[in-house]
From TrEMBL, chains A, B:
<feature type="DNA-binding region" description="H-T-H motif">
    <location>
        <begin position="44"/>
        <end position="63"/>
    </location>
</feature>
<dbReference type="Pfam" id="PF14514">
    <property type="entry name" value="TetR_C_9"/>
</dbReference>
<keyword id="KW-0804">Transcription</keyword>
<dbReference type="Pfam" id="PF00440">
    <property type="entry name" value="TetR_N"/>
</dbReference>
<keyword id="KW-0238">DNA-binding</keyword>
<dbReference type="InterPro" id="IPR009057">
    <property type="entry name" value="Homeodomain-like_sf"/>
</dbReference>
<dbReference type="InterPro" id="IPR050109">
    <property type="entry name" value="HTH-type_TetR-like_transc_reg"/>
</dbReference>
<dbReference type="InterPro" id="IPR036271">
    <property type="entry name" value="Tet_transcr_reg_TetR-rel_C_sf"/>
</dbReference>
<dbReference type="GO" id="GO:0003700">
    <property type="term" value="F:DNA-binding transcription factor activity"/>
</dbReference>
<dbReference type="GO" id="GO:0000976">
    <property type="term" value="F:transcription cis-regulatory region binding"/>
</dbReference>
<feature type="domain" description="HTH tetR-type">
    <location>
        <begin position="21"/>
        <end position="81"/>
    </location>
</feature>
<protein>
    <submittedName>
        <fullName>Transcriptional regulator, TetR family</fullName>
    </submittedName>
</protein>
<dbReference type="InterPro" id="IPR011075">
    <property type="entry name" value="TetR_C"/>
</dbReference>
<keyword id="KW-0805">Transcription regulation</keyword>
<dbReference type="InterPro" id="IPR001647">
    <property type="entry name" value="HTH_TetR"/>
</dbReference>
């Protein structure tokens, strides 16, 4: 990390051609901030460049264009989430507790990066098959693999019911993501304009209780 | 229903200006078929009109354009699903069993109309706030209201755990829809190219078992 040097260079120079790592990171951070603030991923590149205080031409230079910038941002955020998953997997706790914390972490990640769900959906939808495969492999694949391992360990030690791990995980991710997936339904059906910290926590509780114990009341007590 | 008269008229006349109800329904059915077969909602209007054997200009006449046709198709399919929900609600079975069958019905609906998930998502995403509100109100609202009633009845009689019905239903719908939401993840992560009847049934079983009883194995037996 040569951040100090780069920053010193930038302060002394015109912003149009800063040293490589800083401008790239500034653009990613600016994209993240502007998309979070405006609650949309449709933001002009010029606004992102202005926030980053770098020349808009650097987007082409570093990312090859807007799609490349968006993909790099998804990868940056995914890397953070995957790092947290790695730390979680190394803890000395039961598989079912790891699974619970992992799913809570998925909800927290989409809350922390309010544009991330739409960004991934848009990239998977509009991008080439290659980009879709790329995202699936760098992000969805490691998650699915970790969850599968946890399910299998829990099934083996009798703490988790013998459900199909692959299908369970698809369903579990759907439950975690849904509140972030459709703002119009949230607004027009449930009267919720914004997902704040309190709602995020309440939602995580309901999702995790449902996934762990289900909605049926225990019988015979 | 004046279907017989209309069909008789159509057989005798050029297809360019058939009587109103038939051409409208033919276009909806053609759109449904073509989108199902091609596994995409991006189909040219000319192909839909050709399948319906009507003049493409009738799309503007009946629907005001492609968006109107797609919205009308979503409404047609939603009406079928809502009709089934009405019949289900009138049955003399417990609230938790109604909830289970309703959620199974949601999965079946998305399987039966393979384009419906994407169509609703695209309409909610790209359309005006008015269209999004319209869809939320004619489709999502009645579902959410029915589910809320079932949850409350089940909580009252002790068969359903006291979870927040609104948040539970958001999560439950997410679980039901997820396998239909992202074909790229299905393909590149799970190696699944197509959702067939068998997979749809297995997925419904896992989703419903998870939502009803959770993934945790029962303790102490």
């Amino acid at each position: 990390m040569q951040g100090g040097v780069v920053e010193a260079q930038e302060k002394g120079k015109a912003r149009a051609a800063p040293a490589r790592p800083a401008a790239r990171d500034l653009l990613l951070q600016a994209a993240s901030e502007v998309m979070s603030e405006r609650q949309t991923i449709d933001v002009p590149l010029s606004d992102i460049a202005a926030r980053a205080e770098v020349n808009v031409a650097l987007v082409s230079y570093y990312f090859g264009g807007k799609d490349g910038l968006l993909l790099a941002l998804a990868k940056r955020d995914a890397a953070t989430a995957l790092g947290e998953l790695d730390r979680l997997l190394s803890l000395n706790i039961s598989p079912e507790e790891k699974l619970r914390r992992h799913l809570a972490g998925v909800i927290k990640t989409f809350f922390r990066y309010p544009y991330l769900y739409r960004l991934l959906a848009a990239l998977m939808r509009d991008a080439s098959d290659e980009t879709a495969r790329d995202i699936a492999q760098f992000f969805a694949q490691p998650l699915a693999r970790a969850a599968q391992g946890l399910m299998e360990a829990g099934i083996a030690n009798g703490s988790i019911r013998p459900l199909d791990p692959q299908l369970f995980y698809i369903a579990a991710l759907g439950a975690c993501e849904q509140i972030f997936a459709n703002r119009a339904i949230l607004k027009f059906v449930h009267g919720i304009e914004e997902i704040d910290e309190t709602l995020q926590r309440r939602y995580a509780e309901v999702v995790l209780e449902t996934l762990m114990r289900g909605y049926l009341a225990p019988q015979g007590d």
